[in-house]
Design goal:
The protein is an alpha/beta fold. The protein is 31% helix and 19% strand. The strands form eight sheets. Strands 20, 21, 22, 23, 24, 27, 28 and 29 form an eight-stranded mixed sheet that branches. Strand 17 (441-448), helix 16 (465-482) and strand 18 form a beta-alpha-beta unit. The radius of gyration is 29 Å and the shape is globular.
Length: 858
Amino acid sequence: MQLPVLDRLILSAQKPSRYAGGELNAVHKDLSKAAVTWALAFPDTYEVGMSNVGFRLLYHALNERPDVACERLFMPWPDMEAALKAEKLPLFSIESRAPLAAFDIIGFTLQFELCYTTVLAMLDLGGVPLHTAERRREDPLILGGGPCAYNPEPVADFFDAIVVGEGEEVVHEISDAVSQWKRGSAPRADLLWLLAEIPGVYVPSLFKPHYGEDKTIKSYEPLKPGYESIVRRVIPDLNLVPQAEKPIMPFMQTVHDRLPLEIQRGCTRGCRFCQVGMITRPTRQRDPNEVFKIAEKGLDNTGYEEVGFLSLSAGDYSCIDGVLEDFFDELGPENIGISLPSLRTETMSERLTQQIKRVRKSGFTVAPEAATERMRRVINKGNAEKDLLHAVDTIFEAGWDLVKFYFMIGLPTERDEDVRAIVQLCAEALRRGRKKNPRAEINVGVSTFCPKPFTPFQWDPMISLAETQRKQNILRDELRKLGRSFQNLHIKPHDARQGALEGALAMGDRRLSTAVLYAYKAGQRLDSLTEHFRLEVWNEAFQKCEAEHGVGLAFFAHREKGEHEVLAFDHIDCEVTKPYLWKARMAAFKEGEVPDCAYGEEICTACGACDYEVVDNIIYQPSDYKKQPPREARVMPAERTFLRMRYSKEGRAIALSHLETMTALLRTFRRAKLSIPHSQGFHPKPKVSFGPACPVGTQSRAEYLDAELFGTLAAGDVAARLREQLPEGFALLSCEPLAPAQPALNQSIRGIEYLVELPPEAGDVPERLARFALQNEASVVREREGKTPVRIDLKRSVDNLVATGPSALRFTLKAGEAAAVARPAELLAALFGAECTRPGVATLVRESVVFGMPAART
């Protein structure tokens, strides 16, 4: 039986698990019964979007409301986009596969300026008019939010409303407003007027920009009385941000494949290039006494093997040492690791490294940003060379092999010697590191400074593409001078072509919508990925803008702005004042440093972010942390239980790859509280053996795994605990004791039996099999990336090939060396043609395995 068209497209796509859904803890509601329906849309691929902690928080927060249903959408990969267009199918949600246009509200996360064309691609693919002026009452409300919301002007014509600031509270107010409006018959314009009453919501169509003769902005005219500026929304206490008790857990590996836990929001360090350090002020730490509880509950409900402690700099979290100590005392025996995504060099301590390495050396990323003391004063980075070298000593001495550094070039006042110093400082760090660890290796990422709104450097020009390339060549030349003895120092500059475009879109105004629309119509989307980015198209887009409006790339990206110039986002209020930012810029040119107001003597820098009553820094001291009450020490028993399990994969689970299946099942063991011994070494691996990989799109009733478990356990008890925790599409069929000396699965499985049902157009199955039987030789050549192609003898690979009906057959494929044994798709394509045997067109079932069959000959 053929699957519906959409299922067939999903199974035929690259990485079908991007679209299949069915993830653990995903929320499924009846859209027709909800008062308001939301589609949270991330303008990038699934694996990028599902790594965004804010996106995930809003999904669960909205679905906690009984009257709201929220689903997720992502930009499909080009193959899937083309397939949807060919079949005239719209972009669909993950949960219910509802079309984009069916939702009341579509909320886009605007994380990065080069995602703007992807937003338009998603709207177009979903059948939603691109311009807000073209939308009718029945069209979805198009919302934006995220860092780019602080200057949404380049896409203002495409969004009905923008949420400025933190969204955890305002999404509920928006839901109420939309629900109220839906109950009446008022026009769409009334809804926009209603949304403008909500603090933190910006409705671009209610402002009219005016331009001067010099092409700069003369003023913004509010079209609604009293609506002169939009003040950001801020959650005063991070402990008020709702945490999902059952966080969603993707099947596919995401960019950050771990349990996300925000331990601190905001930063008051005052780095002058850093937008997020300004717009997220003040510093708000989560109560350290809640961190472990939240982590433990999230791990229990997901089975993740790692927790990400999220903060702009985890080392700034005052109670980090105590929290980590308790975390590893309790969860270390279960091989649960911690990831600290970003650390400042001056917060790196021996105690911190010793805590993290107790389970998994997950890697260190350190961001010095500038390599000379002068430049660090200019940007107010607040660290010194000794801090970096001490951090390197500490990390490599603790046993790490790799450290990642991040630097910037093109910062205001930078000289060539500052660029050369990047290589020189990294070389010195590697010299010292080798003394601690002979395997020491340093990877260095170098990005180009891009001025961002609401930073002291927002008035400064960005260096040109040619100048960026010249500075990158300085880095390469300096590295070349070091010679072969520094081959473990890798310096990788970021793609220089994207920099100026990002700068222009970050600082640009409403006139840039012309460039964004042109680039989209010329085929641009997923521009954050180098393989999809085309500079020539974007150059044409900016030329189109210049021809139409008299302003282009140089005007927005490479021009210094005056102190009193009206900037594109002056009607947005992030509460850090413009005079404060200008003062900080002037201090940069004098190399003056400003202290962090959240620590030490708490000297207020009068930035404007706090009201000192509700909104203020919230910092916990180490003495505030109450050490976890002593629990019975977790000592893993010496006894072991060995089990062989048979399980099935059906429904949405057939979209999973072998690696995704393995990960999903290992996390099931964790949720079931079944502890698996791990190997020793730098990256411990669980002692589990899986059978041969099941092809994507294949139903299976004969998947096997062998597991070694701590303790003496009854097979029936293990089976019951696993069945309670298995994700959608999986079923445990049997669980039997296994002798410790039993051969591994891949050594003992000698054949796999398949059942196939083909579509009528495949032809008469008995006739095709008879023809195949008469052939003296039948083989296929399998291409292998980076390896010599291998010829597969189909006749030797298959046994018991019989027709079971006019359009059905059964066969057994021998199992053994992967390079020499045929795959089901190869055999079926040779018999019936590739088109009839695509996933979802033919029904392929792995019915059973044969143990002990002689190994296939090669």
